[in-house]
């Protein structure tokens, strides 16, 4: 990571799709990026822990159809997508997802510090999508793909290294598909809406994500209104 607090390197100039202005350097991390990503990770970690408490009874109900437990996976995937959409820097998705996993483990998740492995791989699944677009596009399509990428990561992990590995091929496929769908909706779509909501409050004014999210409705307003 490269670090900078220089105002000239703050990414405020973007188009409606969230593309940084030409000549900017999205790889530079500022102190505000580190602090914000850490706050996202800590807050998400508490949610991860609470989601883990709810996982037991809900997964038991879903067990009537083997594999549908994957629908719950998205509750552990949103940190990386949200962090990537807000920070818009290389490593943001992995960092926020890993911090969230660490916090949930420290609080006392039933899976212990094995969650760090899941956090790293799930964050990498989202990070890969942002990297494929060179960290220059952050619209709803990319958000959904990032959620799907994290879903693919957890689907592969869970059907290979957990009790889900003992399921038959059909149930494994059901789990994998439902995990990806959960990632798209809970991690991708909800994170995109969260960014727009935060931008509307002005909380993201120091980020390109805040400016580009506000630019979309502003450009849709007819002149003279």
Automatic annotation (TrEMBL):
Membrane-crossing residue ranges in chain numbering: 31-51, 63-87, 94-111, 117-135, 142-167, 173-195
Sequence ranges of Polar residues compositional bias: 1-16
Protein name per Swiss-Prot or TrEMBL: Uncharacterized protein
Stored InterPro entries: ABC_thiamin-permease_prd (IPR017195)
Keywords, alphabetical: Membrane, Transmembrane, Transmembrane helix
Protein source organism: Mycetocola zhujimingii
Keyword Transmembrane helix part of the UniProt annotation: yes
Region (Disordered): 1-24
């Amino acid at each position: 990571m490269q670090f900078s607090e220089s105002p000239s390197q703050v990414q405020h100039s973007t188009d409606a799709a969230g593309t940084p202005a030409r000549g900017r350097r999205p790889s530079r991390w500022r102190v505000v990026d580190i602090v914000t990503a850490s706050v996202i990770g800590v807050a998400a970690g508490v949610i991860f822990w609470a989601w883990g408490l709810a996982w037991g009874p809900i997964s038991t109900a879903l067990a009537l159809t083997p594999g549908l437990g994957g629908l719950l996976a998205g509750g552990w995937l949103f940190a990386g997508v949200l962090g990537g959409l807000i920070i818009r820097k290389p490593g943001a998705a992995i960092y926020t997802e890993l911090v969230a996993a660490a916090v949930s483990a420290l609080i006392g998740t039933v899976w212990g510090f094995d969650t760090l492995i899941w956090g790293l791989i799930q964050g990498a699944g989202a990070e890969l999508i942002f990297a494929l677009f060179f960290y220059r596009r952050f619209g709803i399509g990319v958000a959904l793909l990032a959620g799907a990428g994290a879903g693919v990561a957890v689907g592969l992990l869970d059907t290979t290294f957990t009790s889900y590995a003992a399921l038959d091929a059909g149930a494994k496929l059901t789990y994998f598909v439902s995990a990806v769908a959960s990632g798209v909706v809970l991690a991708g779509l909800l994170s995109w809406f969260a960014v727009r909501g935060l931008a509307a409050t002005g909380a993201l004014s120091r980020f390109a994500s805040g400016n580009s999210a506000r630019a979309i409705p502003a450009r849709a307003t007819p002149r003279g209104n």
